[in-house]
Amino acid sequence: MKKLLFPFLLYLVAIVLFTATLITRSAIYAIVGAIFFAVGAIVMFLSLKQ
Predict the structure, then answer these.
(1) CA 33, 4, 29 angle in degrees (round to 5)?
(2) What is the pTM of this model?
(3) What is the mean predicted confidence (pLDDT) over 14-37?
(4) Which among 4, 13, 16 is positioned nearest to 43, based on CA atoms?
(5) Cα dist from 13 to 10, 29, 31, 33, whole Å
(6) Among 2, 11, 19, 50, which has the highest number of CB atoms less than 10 A from its own CB?
(7) What is the C-alpha to C-alpha distance for residues 8 and 12, in angstroms, rounded to an integer?
(8) Which residues contact 25 (CB under 8 A, 6 or more apart)?
(9) Are the C-beta atoms of residues 15 and 37 closer than 8 Å to each other?
(10) Which positions, given as ranges, span the membrane (predicted)?
């Protein structure tokens, strides 16, 4: 269960960045948020596969 905490935190950061994108209308936050989201998905996939 502890392995799922790290991807969850990455998702949380991504959601915060997407919210910041909506507020500031800056594309940089969206790009960084998408990267965090993708990394979180990969980490979750690998931790569930083991």
Answers:
(1) 5
(2) 0.63
(3) 84
(4) 4
(5) 5, 11, 12, 7
(6) 11
(7) 6
(8) none
(9) no
(10) 29-48
